[in-house]
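Researcher: Quick one. two chains, 602 residues in total.
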Amino acid sequence: MSTTSVDLEHSGPVSIGFRHDALLYAGEQQFVERTAAFVRDALEREEPILVAVIEPRRSLLREELGDDARRVEFLDMWNVGRNPARIIPAWQQWVERYRGTGRGFRGIGEPIWAARSPQELLECQFHEQLLNTAFDGGPAWWLLCPYDMDALPDAVIARAHDTHPGVLDGGDRLDSASYPRQELSFAAMFAAPLPEPDPAQVRYRAGFGLDDLVEVRDAVAAHAAALGLSGCRTADLVLVANELATNSVRHGGGRGTLRLWRDGGDVVCEVRDSGLVTDPLIGRRQPTTDGRGGAGLWIANQVCDLVQIRSAPETGTSVRIRINESGA
Amino acid sequence: MTARHTRVLTALDALGDGDHVGWVVERPTQFTEMAALCLQQGADLGDMQFLFAPQHGGWPQQLPVGKGVPVVDPHVAFLHGGHLDPEAMYAAFRRHAALAAEQGYRGLRVVADMDWLLGPRPAGGQIAAFEQGLDAVAVETGATIVCAYRRESFTGRELAGVMCVHPHELGASRSLGFRIWSSGSGRWHLSGQVDLRAAEVFPTALRAAADGRAALWLDCTHLAFIDMAGMRAIAQVAHGTGASVYLEGANETLRRCWKLMDWETGLPNVEFCA
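Model:
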């Protein structure tokens, strides 16, 4: 297979700044054709490339690339990006490897696939938007995000146009007409409320302050175990619930409210307080060994299957985490 | 000396060699009564004994217990009226432990009315650091040391900070959730739960434990919980001092978080041990 309908000649190599494009395709064959063309173009230009996609697409692309696959780095997006907030740190590591080298480099990252839950999808779209915040103004590199038009709803494809400055659809790279959108600003996305759980499903609800942290941890542990989490995942939940409660005490007005419930296969824990989050990339920067950078939301993102942060001056902050027995 | 274990006491009887008791005293008469019983026990065992107390506390020069127990104000006798100098205090303990051995005593026992600190009046953090170092001296010398803090003389914050660096505790104080104590030679034990309550004291205690040492052993076997700030405090000590840090008996959550933070790479001087 050697033909491609992606017009890379027209697109040209990365020269200035961060380029973040959506690549539309229909079905696995087009995925392989279009991503392989992008990879081969990078390799011809001696540009390092990292591919982060789920199986079977990772294997299909490897197969198509043949010997060239050895010059490509691959990540399993299922592991890296099950919680989409873990994807930017992975790209950050890739960027740091080539920062200051003067050479271009590339990535292919497919954070959205058909089996994503509605809440995961929301956070993936937030992630796509945040990529621009995270890497605009940094080194020049080119990230391509494939979207399967056969498997994903039209609304998801439309949102891909909204969150990517450029779109490739088998022809020229086109500037997206709907990017950027005001309703996808950091403030607007953080202000969008999360769906309320059925009150009858909430297994634990408690207000807390500094002197209640032990009680909160004990209650979360007891309820998590009762909801079927293993000892290891219960320990994860207790650790993260404590970090969220600690943030409330330290930064959210000294007090907060914690709720716990089950939603399908997930145990969900939410902490609300009166604080305001102003950093769109909170929890997505690797803390350093010398103590800089917050570690609580970082570790939440590492051990939880999904972390959703909502914050607005009128409503305060709520952080909702999901832990699945099979995750982390 | 057998391995030290942390204990919450209800009385000052049955103290052993190297025991280091933090005692929150509610009433003056409580101190007088319980200190007398403790000293009588020391006399029965054949210990060299001292009562530390402020010079103007109304105590006689010697208590009529056993062969007599001298009453000493450390601020006058060991610090010559100056600031709290932990090393000078530790040297005094070492000197008297050696003297007790030379003179055929079974050991050294000190009951301290910590109101003597009201003379030099160090800051709360300095008192805790002094007590933490004294704990290592208790292990080293085998001295039995009872530190009685009168509630009316110290703030709740000072009491909480001081009590968590004593392996043995008597009397109620607001708990910071954790305890750190020595087993000698740069080895320290952690127990309890390290969370936001300990945010100020725990990093200070770790720095004191690592102070000037090439290696620090932290036994985490009895550490039930540690939050991310606590883990970072360990990382910061390893980063800041460059000392080899050995984490013994750390639970799976601590090990896993260490890995997820990528501190394995950044801090090769930290090692997890069984």
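Confidence is low (pLDDT under 50) at residues 1-6, 9-14 of chain A.
Researcher: Thanks, that's what I needed.
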